[in-house]
Amino acid sequence: MKYTLLLMVLLMVVSCSQESPEKITDIQDYNIFLSDVESKKTSKYFEQWNSMIKPDSMQLMSFGIVAGEYSRYFQETGDISQLKMAEKALKKAVDIAAIGKSGYQRALARNYISQHRFKEALELANSSRSIGSGVIESQKLLFDVHMELGNYVDAEQYLDSIKNMSDFDYLIRLAKWNDHKGDLETAINFMEKAKENAESSKNSSLMLWSYTNLADYYGHAGRIQDSYEHYLKSLKLDPQNAYAKKGIAWIVFSYEKNPEEALRILDSITKNYRSPDYFLLKAEIANYMGDTLQLTHNLDTYAIAVDNPSYGAMYNVYNAGMYLELTEQFHKALKVAEIEVDNRPTPESYHLLAYSYFKLDENEKALEIVRKYIEGKTFEPTILYRTAEIYKATGEYSKLAEIKEELLGAIYELGPSMESKILNL
């Protein structure tokens, strides 16, 4: 009997060691960045320029500078009202500008991209390009907009038009293009070159951008230690950077299987940072923990936040995901997916449409959408998993087997609750 008990203990030890991966994070590394500090929404510099703006003002420079400050406050706080104020100032600048209009149009287009108003952004980008001032900057913008709209042939042409291997802006777009094609190794290579470019120029904003994006790419590639280190580098440059903290929280949750600590990190962010999607992530973690109270609270908080009409279409994808996975409101998901396809006809949008039909037991319609708009056009793990479910339901077993193997290598990206679901496909 004692040998049986000993064997059981040994089996438990082996099992636990298999389930607990090597620990990557250290609370001592990031705790200092979790302090409760609210980002400022004003400064003497801002007040000086804002005071120059009157109802009938023609102070062009004032509008441009104030818009830039509002945009910065939005990045730091996640407060949508700041982005809308930036839009208002930029629209006035576009209206009154005689010289430099194309630059203000580009700035307003980028504001619209942030708001997911992609068709309006494209109109402004084309208008800016036609003026003929700042041609390279307009071509960079046009690449960005066409990528968002799923116009990949046009995007590639604009990418070719700005080719310059020593230019940071070109390198990061080249990385994005290769990631879109599914060549993650090449994407990382170009992003690393962009990082070197930023570091050699000692440009802190470009360094921050390259660190957070590299951290994401490293995570996709399973290089979790490198990902963690680059999120920490980001925080050393910007201690209040919510995105980097969120990245560390995901490592703690998905890789280290420590949902309580991940929630602690996210709680420190959401005290002051107002981006609603953080509450959806908290809901996902609470669901994994089986904590119904926290799940409901975070879903309610998210729903109240995105009810603000200022968000427009910005959270359509998140809303559809919530309806499909957490609240099972499939008809609502379908309506949102239809709007998103019209707004942004990408494989990502079409997969929401296909999966909504699948959840409504219209499997053949779902498969038709997959074949026409998704197959071979995206490598995003969530889309591949949902596509695999549709393949299974429609008897496409050979295609299912191919995707299943790829999905098993993407469990970190999908989250710890997905491993059993993938194995059961």
From TrEMBL:
Sorted UniProt keywords: Repeat, Signal, TPR repeat
Organism taxonomic ancestry: Bacteria, Pseudomonadati, Bacteroidota, Flavobacteriia, Flavobacteriales
Signal peptide: 1-19
Keyword Signal attached: yes
Alphabetical list of Pfam families matching this protein: TPR_8
Extent of the TPR repeats: 208-241
Protein's UniProt name: Anaphase-promoting complex, cyclosome, subunit 3
Transmembrane feature ranges: none
Origin superkingdom: Bacteria
Cited SUPFAM superfamilies: TPR-like
Organism: Arenibacter palladensis
